[in-house]
Amino acid sequence: MPRTMTTQVQSASQRQMPAAHLTRTMQLLEKTCTDLDSELSNEINDNPALEMVDEMRCPDCKRVIRTFPCQICLNQHGAAGPIVYVAPRRQNHSAASDSEEYLSNDNRIRNPESLAEHVLKQVAPSLDKQERGVAEYILARLDEHGFLLEHTAEIASYLRVRISTVKKVLELLRRADPVGIASENVTECLLTQLEVLDKDGMGNPLAHDLLTEFWEQLGRRDFGAIARKRHVSVESVKLAAQFIKRNLSPYPSQAHWNNAESASGRYFRPDVEVQKNPHAEDGPLVVQVFTAARGSLRVNPTVRDMVKRIEEPEKKDEWSAYLERAALFVKCMRQRDNAMRRIVRLIVKRQPAFILGDDSDLIPMTRAELAEELELHESTISRAVASKTICLPNGRIIPLSLFFDRSLAVRAAVRKIVNDEEKAMTDEQIATKLVDYGYKVARRTVAKYRSMLGILPANLRARQLPRAA
Ligand SMILES: [Zn+2]
User: Fold this and answer.
1) What is the dihedral of CA 183, 185, 190, 192, to 10 degrees?
2) How far is the CA of 88 from the centre of ligand 1 (A)?
């Protein structure tokens, strides 16, 4: 969304800066890390005064570091509270990310080189020297599932090659074995595999539609809805879904390199990741808050010097606007990262039992409480929490907003009560039992939670009893 120069000049006047500043920080805070990634690319593309320097700096001590977290700041960390740091999401490991080296050098389950070599061997004969370089770059940047998390334009600009070159290389890579490698996401990967099967005369047109048009319904296994919209029988939808399950693999790297590590629920990229302390069982939790910048974002000093020398007023204004906008963006990104970090630190500090335990360990807390303790506005907390996800040490990815879900612990109790029941209990009886757990909940609320948990009402549960333990 490139804005016109006129708007930039207008909006960049000094007087309007504080408001613009706040609005921009709030906008950035609201974005998931993935959206922040594209926002950053857009901003860099649109603004010649903004640049990303290929060096990593510790946000605290400003030293240039090689890996996150900064060892110097880490050593100064007291025993209290989790270790929380802001880091870019690295390409080789979407989940384990940068702390990989810090966590353990021997802990690598798989050698990513071998997969890269395997693919490169197949495509190399069709590539010239430059394209081969692009292929090597891409293969080195795949995440643990074999996905490519960088945009084509980003790669092209980083490697200083044409976008069409990157596209050509990607086309080849994605069709190499394992098919779908270097895809952007699960859907794209599945579609590529389907396309290859199609060429071999083994395709399935309905499966194609399921992947392109009915992805969500497919996820919910809502075959009836798909059948109605597509005017086919439920049975044929089920068959197409089965076809997908049997013939396609959502994770290209795992399709080929049988990986013992469970990937369930990990294909979408979390905004925050919590890990147990690798050095001490009861040591502080290690938390990464992901940000978009893979380097140091700054106002380009060469442009700044150049603008000083411009004499023509109109041109000077135009370039000054670029400079201001770049400075604003750098500042707002930093504030976004800082706010995220403070908020996440407090959440993790308050909920270690839930993070390491289960839903019943959640301690009810509100956005307002956090806001007060952090001296932030409640809406700031809401934005920071909205639509973001956190990966817990057991690999489970949950919405950050779940930490504020008062009903979660009650729901866990409802599940426990039903699991333990000898005879199907009515909602009324469950409500009474909940008092033992310290929850006073209306019968209607129990019914609501029960249905959220996918538990049938008592009269229908009764038929299923006795249940296998
Ligand atoms: Zn540091």
Assistant:
1) -30
2) 15
Predicted confidence at residue 80, as pLDDT, reads 74
What would the two tokens of residue 81 be?
A: 């509270």
Tell how far the Cα of 32 is from the centroid of ligand 1, in angstroms. Answer: 25
CA of 231 to the centre of ligand 1 (A): 60
147 CA distance to ligand 1 centroid (A)? 31
The three-class DSSP label of residue 86 is strand
The CATH number that applies at residue 237 is: 1.10.10.1330
Whether residue 122 is found in the same domain as residue 231? yes
Q: Assess whether 421 and 361 both reside in one domain.
A: no
Using the mean position of ligand 1's atoms as its centre, give its distance from the Cα of residue 98 in Å: 15
Ligand 1 centroid to Cα of residue 283, in Å, is: 20
Distances (CA, A) of 265 to 84, 95, 260, 343, 389: 23, 11, 15, 24, 12
**Residue pLDDT, tens place only, 271-281:** 999 998 877 77
Question: Nearest CA to 40 among 183, 139, 150?
Answer: 150
* Opening angle at CA 209, ends 207 and 215, nearest 5: 90
Among 221, 237, 256, residue at a domain's last position:
256
Q: Which residues span the domain enclosing 204?
A: 112-256
pLDDT of residue 274: 93
Domain-embedded: residue 422: yes
Cβ proximity of 304 and 30 under 8 Å: no
Cα 443 from Cα 462, distance rounded (Å): 19
Cα separation of 441 and 360, whole Å? 16
pLDDT at residue 103, rounded to an integer:
38
The segments of the chain whose pLDDT lies below 50 read: 1-16, 91-113, 255-267, 465-469
Residues 444 and 353 placed together within one structural domain of the fold: no
Which residues have beta carbons under 5 A from ligand 1 (an ion)? Answer: 58, 60-61, 70, 72-73
Helix (H) or strand (E) holding 83: strand 83-88
Give the Cα separation of 174 and 179 in Å (integer): 6
